[in-house]
Amino acid sequence: MEKRKFHILVVIVGILLIIGISYAYFTSDFTIENNPSSVTVTTATIDDVKLAVEGTLNFDDRDILPGHRNISAIKVTALSDNTIVEYNLIWKGINELETPLKYYVYRTTSEETPSISCIKTQSGNANFRKYFEECENNNFDNLGEIIYEGQIETTNVEKNFTLATNQVLKGNTNGNSVYYYVVLEFPNEEDNQNKDMNKKFDGVVTVEETEAKLADITINKIYTVDKTGKQTEVKKAPGEEEGYTLDKNQSSCENGTLDWDDDNYALKVSATETGTSCNLYFKKIPTSADVLENLGLSSKVNGTSPNFSKTACDSGCETTDKGLYKTQDDDGDTYYFRGSVTDNWVKFAEYYWRIIRINGDGTIRLIYSGKVGDEDNLTFPNSNRNNPAYVTGTGTQVTIDSSTKLAFNTNIDQNRYVGYMYGSSSGDYSTSHKNDSPSNIKTKLESWYSTNLENVSVGGKTAKDYIDEDAGFCGDRTPYNGSSDTASVDYTKGGTTTGTFYGGYFRLVTQKTPDLHCKRNTKSGATTLSEDNDLYTVNNSKKGNKAISKPVGLINADEVNFAGGRNGTNNQGYYLYTNFGYWTMSPFDFLSNFASVFFVDSTGWLGSNDVASTYSVRPVINLKADTKITFQDPNGENKGTYSNPYIVEGVD
C-alpha cells in the first residue's frame, strides 16, 4: 500500500461577536395566569454580551497516516455584566476526504498544556503492508471528560459542522473565559484509504449564537410577606403600586439565580439550562410611618407645627419646641427631631450618631456624633449625659478630625465653588454648576467613609450593607436675583462672578420657611426628583444626580432649621449644638468675590462663611428602611438615649 500524503489545515480566525437574545437571561413584566404554575414572559434581553474567540486549531501535519491525531486549543471569553450567554462551537469549511474525520471536544476553565505524540508503524508481510500511526495522549488529566464527539462528514462545498451545542458562559466586565481542546483524528480504518490522497480539508472554527428563544421558567409559588413577617400565598405577583419588592434572601430558582429590577419592577433570572423553576417572596416596603412604629416613636409625634422663625429647645431659647414632628419631603411624610431631644441616639459601626429624621422613603438619616470609646469628649456633660442637651465638655470628638478643620473648597472667587461639586469657569449657570469636580470636603468625607466606616463589621456583615444608596443629600444651588421677598429664580445668575443668592438663603434668611423637598433646580429641564442636579446620589441610585462615589454627605441648612437652629441666633440647647463650628452642604450666596456656604457656628447659630474658612466635619448617612433596630438594653429605661441608644441588628 502506498504511503498516504495530504495536507489537512484548520485555522481559526480572530472574531468578535455581538450576541443578541438568549434564553438564559430575561427581563419580564409578568403576571400569573389562570394556571399558577406558569408565568407569562413578555420580553427577553441579553444586554450586548460580547464573545471573543482566539487561538488556532491546527491539523496541518504532513505525511500523516491513518490513526494520526492532533490537538489544539480555542479560548472563548464572555464580556458582560453577570449575564449568561448560550452559543454553539462550529467548524465551517470543506472536507473532500472520503474518510470522515473524527473529533473530540474537552472544556476546562483553565489553560492546560495537553499534547499528542504519534509513532508511525506498519503491519503485514513483504507482499502486503499496511502503514498507520499509534498515538498517545499526554497531560490530558486536567481536561476532564469529553463533552462532545462526532465526525466531520465528506462535503465538497462549504458547510457548517456543529462541534459542541448549547454551551453556556456567564460573562463579567473583566471577561470570563473557558478553553476548548479539540482533538481531530484521521481514523485507522480497515479499508484502503488511498482514495484520500491529495484531497482538500480546511475551514475555520468559530462560535455562533443559539436561536433566540424565551426562557422556560416555571413559578412554583408566590408569597407576600407583611411587615410582621407573616407569609401569604397569592396567585398573582403584587403590583408596584401595592408597595412590595422582591425579597431576594428568601426567593430562589432551581438551576439559576434571580435578581430584581426596582426601576422597571421586573424579575431577572439567570439560568444555566431551561426548565428553571422559582419560588418568589415579595416583602412589604416599609413606609416612614412603619419605621417610626418599629422605633417605638409613633406616640411621640407632635400635632402642631413649630415656629421656624425662632430657635428651639426646652428652656432658655425663643420657643420650647422639643420632640418629634412631621412634614413632607419628595418621598412623602418625614419625621424630624427638634430642640433639646435626648432620645435620638444610635450606636452603629463603632460610632455614635443622632437621628436627624426618618426620610419619606423610610430610610433613617443619621449625623455623626463621636467614636465609641471616647465618651468623655462627646457633647453631653460627663455628670449627666442624658439631661438635657447642654454641653459643658469640649465636644472635640463629634467631628471626624478634631485636630484639623477643613475648608469646604480651597477657592472662593467664583460662584461654582459654593457647590459640593462644581463645573468649569463660565458665565453660564449650567456649565459652572455641573458636577465635574469634587469639593475639598467631599474628597475628605469619602476618604473617611472608605477607611473608617464602609467595611466595619456589623452583625456579621459590613456597615455598607446597612447604608442606603438612594436617599441622597441635598445641596440646593437654585440661583435667585436678590435677597428680598420679591426675589425670584434667575438662571442668568450663578455664572463666574455674578452676584447670586441661593435657595437656602431665600428660604431660611428671607422667608424663614425651611423645606425638605429637593427638586428645585430645574435649569436642565428637570421635572422630577430623578433628574435633579442638586440631590447628590451614588451612581446606581434610582434618583438624583448620581455624581458621588460613596453614600455619605453632610446635613443641609434646612435640616438644621427644622432641628431648632436659626440664622443669626445663638442656641446652645438643641441637639445639633456641639461647642464648635461645622459645615452644612447648603450654598448661601456669592457676593464681593466670596463664595459662601451655611455652617453651624460654635455658639449654635446657623450662619455662613466663605468656603475657604475652616470648620469641622460631621458625616451624614442613611440607614436602609428595612434595618432592624433595637436598644442596647431592651429592658432598660431611657430608650434611645446616650446611655441606652438604638443599635442596629440587621437588615431584613
* Fraction in beta strands: 35-45%
Binned, the helix content reads under 10%
Largest sheet: 8 strands, mixed
User: How many β-strands, per DSSP?
Assistant: 41
Number of domains: 3
The average pLDDT is 80
Distance between the termini: 79 Å
Tell me, briefly, the overall form: elongated
Number of helices: 5
Radius of gyration: 35 Å
Low-confidence parts: 1-49, 380-393, 525-530
Give me the secondary-structure category. Answer: mainly beta
Write structural notes for this entry.
The chain has 652 residues and is mostly beta strands. The chain has 3 domains: 8-21 and 45-209, no CATH class; 217-285, no CATH class; 293-651, no CATH class. 6% of the residues lie in helices and 37% in strands. The protein contains 5 helices and 41 strands. Strands 21, 22, 23, 24, 25, 39, 40 and 41 form an 8-stranded mixed beta sheet that branches. The N and C termini lie far apart (79 Å).
Secondary structure elements and pairings:
Layout: E1 8-10, E2 15-19, E3 25-28, E4 49-54, E5 69-79, E6 84-95, E7 101-108, E8 115-124, E9 129-138, E10 146-152, E11 155-170, E12 176-185, E13 201-209, E14 217-225, E15 231-234, E16 244-246, E17 252-253, E18 256-261, E19 266-271, E20 276-284, H1 288-294, E21 323-329, E22 332-338, E23 345-348, E24 351-358, E25 364-371, E26 406-407, E27 421-422, H2 429-432, E28 437-438, H3 440-452, E29 457-458, E30 461-462, E31 473-474, E32 479-480, E33 500-502, H4 503-511, E34 535-536, H5 557-563, E35 582-591, E36 594-600, E37 606-610, E38 614-615, E39 620-623, E40 627-631, E41 646-651
Parallel strand pairs: 1-13, 14-20, 23-41
Antiparallel strand pairs: 2-4, 3-19, 4-5, 5-12, 6-11, 6-13, 7-10, 7-12, 8-9, 14-15, 16-20, 17-20, 18-19, 21-22, 22-24, 23-24, 24-25, 25-39, 26-38, 27-28, 29-30, 31-34, 32-33, 33-35, 35-36, 36-37, 40-41
